[in-house]
Amino acid sequence: MEIPKAPSSSMKFPPESVSGKLKAFSTGTTIVGVVYKDGVVLAADTRATAGSIVADPNCFKLHYMAPNIWCAGAGTAADTEKVTELISSQLTLQRLNMNRETRVVMAMTRLKRHLFPYMGHISAALVLGGVDCTGSSLYMIYPHGSVDRLNYVTMGSGSLAAMSVFESRYRRGMERQEAVELCRDAVLAGIFNDMGSGSNVDAVIITRDAQTNMTQHEMLRNFVMPNPKKVHPDYRFPAGSTVTLKDPIIEVFDAEGRLVRGGGPSGLNNENEGTEADT
User: Fold this and answer.
1) Residue tagged active-site, from 29, 30, 84, 207
2) Which of 124, 138, 213, 239 fits a disulfide with 279 by CB distance 3.0 to 4.6 angstroms?
């Protein structure tokens, strides 16, 4: 019996990527989301790392998808930005074509269908939240394309610390301020307990106005800064503070050819051992 071949994906991978020979890289982020009484709150830290180096201490991990939908991204910065930009443009064209508000489930479906063929090679772990005609929705989208719909979610390397805050304090029907404070403390737990998370806390609040029935959002950029960078004073050291092991002395001549500095029996560089640096 002939075994049917698997459908080809839109991205070709070398054989070593399937056999596990490629090196895995660790990424760091803490992103969270929670559904409260009148809407959804998403929050994230602002540290972007490149291995053990902090590449950007104040990057923006909350991505616009639609006027009523936002997305927090963890993983590779380029992947999260480009995936959300691509799907956001598709949702814009859909709104213009259909002349109606985008549903959160539509954004979720487009994101997971885009990620699934790449088998997790697009490192984009997303927390999608929004408010539409069906109410408030919060989804957790994994890089492989699987999806969970929950009332509160955490993702990233600091997700365990953040989840401990949600598990101990979440309750249904929370007010706006209580939900913002819960997300703030969850992200702070990730910042202080995960080396890949750090710097500041960003948040976006998505809600629907009961009077106008219009969805609106409020961006809280760097509304918590637990680790402000301290400005060091202008250090000044006295002359001769640094001792060098070798101080090469080079011959210096003036315009008339007279020796101004340096020189030795051989006419080459003369090295003095254990002298102090010239000032």
Assistant:
1) 29
2) 239
